[in-house]
Write a structure and sequence with these properties.
Structural class: mainly alpha
Subcellular location: Mitochondrion membrane
Strand content: under 5%
GO molecular function: NADH dehydrogenase (ubiquinone) activity; NADH dehydrogenase activity; ubiquinone binding
Number of helices: 8
Family: Belongs to the complex I subunit 4 family.
Number of strands: 2
EC number: 7.1.1.2
Subunit structure: Core subunit of respiratory chain NADH dehydrogenase (Complex I) which is composed of 45 different subunits.
């Protein structure tokens, strides 16, 4: 039942593909979909039904409560990822990106297949948190420099980011968080 609903949501999300590059679908002041975020949102909505289908055989042995918890974690992860990819504010993006760690960590440590799943969850948590600290520092620096972290307000800022070595370090800090 959840799988069929998630397939319907996946099909509905395909409407994001048919938007002009200049158009941005504003849902609120904090969330919108543009040509960069729409493929990521569509991919996210297609992953939930595929994960549910892929885990059906493994979940047959689980109790009803564990099945509901598993599906709830997957749905929560999908909601957080959709919010992450549609965030206009970079701090909101950062917070939502870090919030996806919680259901992912629970899924890894509870339903991981190997005996090393606890170590894998611990490594996942620490590598991701340590890798995202430079991103947070870069975001705070950009906020102090430009006065905003909103994508829609960046063109209106009076302080452009010039090509200097410190901006190269900012770029490296941001990229390191995503590469990890």
């Amino acid at each position: 039942n959840v799988t069929s609903y998630s397939f319907m949501i996946s099909l509905l999300s395909a409407m994001f593909l048919w938007q002009n590059n200049m158009n941005v679908l504003n849902f609120s002041l904090l969330f919108s979909v543009d040509s960069l975020s729409s493929p990521l949102i569509i991919l996210t909505t297609w992953l939930l039904p595929l994960m549910l289908l892929a885990s059906q055989n493994h979940m047959k042995k689980e109790s009803e409560q564990n099945k509901k918890t598993y599906v709830s974690m997957l749905v929560l992860l999908q909601i957080l990822l959709i919010m992450t990819f549609s965030a206009n504010e970079l701090v909101m993006f950062y917070i939502l990106f870090e919030a996806t760690l919680i259901p992912t960590l629970i899924i890894i440590t509870r339903w991981g297949n190997q005996t090393e799943r606890l170590n894998a969850g611990l490594y996942f948590l620490f590598y991701t948190l340590i890798g995202s600290i430079p991103l947070l520092i870069a975001l705070i620096y950009i906020q102090n420099l430009t006065g905003t972290l909103n994508f829609l307000l960046f063109p209106l800022t009076l302080v452009p980011l010039n090509q200097t070595w410190s901006n190269n370090i900012l770029w490296l800090a941001c990229m390191m968080a995503f590469l990890i």
